[in-house]
Amino acid sequence: MVRAAGCLIFTDGRALPVDPQPAWWGYSIGRWDGSTFVVQTAGFNDRTWLDDTGHPHSEAMKTTERFRRTDFGHMDMQVTIEDPATYLEPFTATVRFNLQPDTELLEHICENERDSEHIVGK
């Protein structure tokens, strides 16, 4: 099992549930395809956006993310979004990341969250 971006990715070979309980991060399974880590997610609730500009999605959305190191300091993530209740056909986007080896991972929180007043160590 892997924990990434607030969600759990099950890597024990299980399949996606047929009718998962909708959740903020969905329900994710992962597997290796050669040197690419493939994550499939379903079971999202419909209370979030796809991006910062507010593109919607439904509870029918499924995503497939493919993480691949291109070289020592770089990684590509290709995401395919399927949501037949909102979009006419699946679409794919690629995001490139610069990796910073030997650096400390920093915690991130959205400070405009309603529950931020309950966070310890303000």
Describe the overall structure.
The structure is a single chain. 0% of the residues lie in helices and 39% in strands. With 122 residues, it is an all-beta fold. It has one domain (2-118). A seven-stranded mixed β-sheet has the order 1-2-3-4-5-6-7, with no helix packed on it. A hairpin with a 2-residue loop joins strand 5 (62-71) and strand 6 (74-82). The radius of gyration is 16 Å and the shape is globular. The model has no long low-confidence stretch (mean pLDDT 86).
Task: Please describe the topology of this protein.
Elements: E1 2-4, E2 7-10, E3 27-33, E4 36-42, E5 62-71, E6 74-82, E7 91-98
Parallel strand pairs: 2-3
Antiparallel strand pairs: 1-2, 3-4, 4-5, 5-6, 6-7
> How many domains make up the coordinates?
1
Question: Beta-strand level of the residues, as a percent range?
Answer: 35-45%
Structural class: mainly beta
Number of E strands:
7
Question: Looking across the biggest beta sheet, what order are the strands in?
Answer: 1-2-3-4-5-6-7
Distance between the termini: 30 Å
Overall geometric form: globular
Radius of gyration: 16 Å
Give the rounded overall mean pLDDT.
86
The biggest beta sheet, please? 7 strands, mixed
List the total number of helices: 0
H and E string: EEEEEEE
Low-confidence runs: none
- Which percent bin holds the helix content? under 10%
